[in-house]
Amino acid sequence: MATTSFAATADDQVAVDPHGPAYTADGRLIAPADYREWVYLSSGLDMSYNPKAMASPSPMFDNTFVNPESYRAFASTGRWPDKTVIVLEVRGSAGKGSINQRGHYQSGGVQGMEVHVKDTARFQGGWAFFSFDDGAAPAKQIPVAEACYTCHSAHAAVDTTFVQFYPTLLPIAQQHSTLSAAYLKDTAELVGSPAR
Predict the structure, then answer these.
(1) C-alpha closest to that of 75 among 160, 168, 152
(2) Angle 147-155/181-192 helices, nearest 10 degrees?
(3) For the chain, which domains are there?
(4) DSSP label of 89
(5) Is the pTM here over 0.85, yes or no?
(6) How far is CA 151 from the centre of its chain?
(7) Do the beta carbons of residue 84 and residue 60 sit within 8 Å?
(8) pLDDT digits (tens, 9 = 90+) for 61-112
């Protein structure tokens, strides 16, 4: 499978800060071309909240990156600033190859990309989701009625983001007491539930 390129042309871009969200004139989000140079947050393997991972016959990896300015702000405050851009790319896996004898490694090109953007002047509730599964074309906002919004609101550790899955950021949020009540409730219920 060929690697998907997520680059936008200069004609499509409305001028904004170099790592913040960029939109076309009609409000579609332009996929950040350089997100792999941003701050890496974590990887997941077959995370069950991703429908593509659940449907795949082989394990799927997701890799999460955030724009550097927002990472620095979060590290200082435990909160995401306006214009935060979080990118989740999905890649396939392989178990046999070269000298590998056990486990899985990431293989092939990007099979999908989702972007979570904080732009309080543009989006009701401050945050919006975009999916670039169909390639590099600028993406329309995923409708607010979709499950990703309610799931993130009900379970995210900090400001509708799944900081609980980012091991370098969770301690920062704990230190700054910015963990959401919903996440603390989920955690308390998990700790109190019988072992499975």
Answers:
(1) 168
(2) 70
(3) 35-142 (3.50.70.20)
(4) E
(5) no
(6) 14
(7) no
(8) 888 999 999 999 999 999 999 999 999 998 876 777 787 667 776 687 888 8
